[in-house]
Specification:
globular, two-stranded antiparallel sheet, about 0% strand, single chain, mainly alpha
Amino acid sequence: MPPSLKKYFDKKTKIINRALVRYLPSKKKKPSIIHQAMHYSLQAGGKRLRPVLVIAGAEVCGGSTQQVLSAACALEFVHTYSLIHDDLPAMDNDDLRRGKPTNHKVFGENIAILAGDALLTQAFELVAPYPHAVKMLAQAAGTAGMVGGQVADIQSDKGRWKRKNNEFSSPRELLNFIHLNKTAALIRASLLIGAIIAKGTENEIKALDSYGKHLGLAFQITDDVLDKIGDKKKLGKKGSDSANEKLTYPAIFGLNRSIQMARQQIIMAHQSIRLFGSRGKILHLLADFIQSRDH
């Protein structure tokens, strides 16, 4: 990560981490086990990409960190809830998340489900003062976004994507649907919620929407590539998508073509935010980092 981007992320992440704890009920509040489970996954680490994007989206439109801090935390709550549920035996059945035992391994499946539910509910409490943000978050997290993409991903798992699917004309169409919804939708929403709260102009919001779409796709393609060539210890997981016959970019296009596709998405992300000029520096640096990261 370039020094200026690392400095930006370190500064914002410290602010976000303090706020995340502040916006959660105390671990001692009854019933304590559910609050402990919520804290456990939320404080397990992670890039804090989505809340940082909320802040960056606001700042590039003239807003401030404090103005959007509660909304930034809401995005991380939603992201964390999705990870808790993704790891469950009925979903991906993962034992590790970010190098630590998954929530259901520590607290049991029933508490893990409820911890995810509680984080999602808490997220909407945080964005309640911003009606436009509430609607955008609901769309990005629901069947028109993340949940819809997850459902399509489940239906294509274990090699099922190789069979003809009447809803999608080709594996490529299915793959794009999954990742535009499962991954990119929340990334786009993060940027847009920040911009909307900061009262960004129509053109600024359109630019960030396009940037978020391309950034989200680049993020997912790079994830797929790292699943094949990345260090599992750095990734904090075991197993691989290819072993599970999941639908990925390398599975359809091969490794080299997938890397080229990620680069193309980054080029389009850069082009999307030209109107910001020097104000968009952090967003440009972030786009380059998304593709070059190793975990």
